[in-house]
Amino acid sequence: MDPDLWQLLKGVSRSFYLSIRFLPGRIRPAIALGYLLARASDTIADANSLAAGDRLKILNQLRAQLFTMDVLLQRGLKECAERQPEGPERQLLEQVEKILVSARELSQKDQGLLLEVLENIMRGQILDIERFELASSLRALRSPEELEEYIYLVAGSVGEFWTKLGLQAWTQYSQVDDEKIIVLGTEYGKGLQLVNILRDYPQDLRLGRSYLPVTGALSEDAKVVEPMFQEWRAVAQRYLESGAQYVRTIRPIRVRFACALPVLIGIETLGKMKVAPRLGEKIKVSRARVYWLMLLSLLIAAVPGCDKIFMRARV
Length: 315
Known about the structure:
Blueprint: H1 3-12, H2 14-20, H3 28-45, H4 52-64, H5 71-83, H6 88-94, H7 96-103, H8 108-132, H9 144-169, H10 178-199, H11 201-206, H12 222-249, H13 253-271, H14 287-302, H15 309-312
Helix pairs in contact: 1-2, 1-3, 3-7, 3-8, 4-5, 4-8, 5-6, 8-9, 9-10, 10-12, 10-13, 12-13, 13-14
């Protein structure tokens, strides 16, 4: 992979860069390129200086032509990049073609998995725009099924992608059968996304939207919100437990380390949300705490029996 792209990755996500740099070389490029392309599509989806319809058009073109960009798509990406302020996200959009050149150097199997996960992620981003910007009525997910679909598309599919890459790269990737480890990886990803949704719920309400299912009017009343928040907090906890089980069962030590850290950060974040966060309240794991969790992740990955740390983590 082009060294410039590693610097780009560091610029757009320092926390993810910390994990990915430790991954074995046999899966690291596919995961890095997948992240860069997913982050690029997310930047397009969030480019509010462009009309929602224009962003949808670019995303749909990118989703359909990922490895074969035509002139119209190139123009759309260029326009979107020009609307971005100077910084890593603008550089990311300017480098999409270079990222795709590197992606075409992956094995055919890795390319197939990469296309699969990016199509899912972009489908979730497209649904985001359709539901929250183009909707003429209530701007909220309407059912548990819609929320489950969303967290699968944007994050559960990523856990599935990592797992399938691992199964391709190692003959004995996990201590459980392939079907079971794929389910655990998918739930692991869904848990991380659900933690983000719970953490950001008050800010989303202020923007007039809700990722938690709503059938009536949106409300900031704590008595109304709390039962629903607790219901989905319990789901997030269950999915994070699947994430911990995932780490326990996979064999490559460096992959165990990279996967243990997000689980611990997710558990820590969920532990700070015993009740729904108040508007303006910042739920964040400090940098010093992240470094401590990195040490714990190393112990979990390398020292037999240290996976019991998951049981002591705060939820």
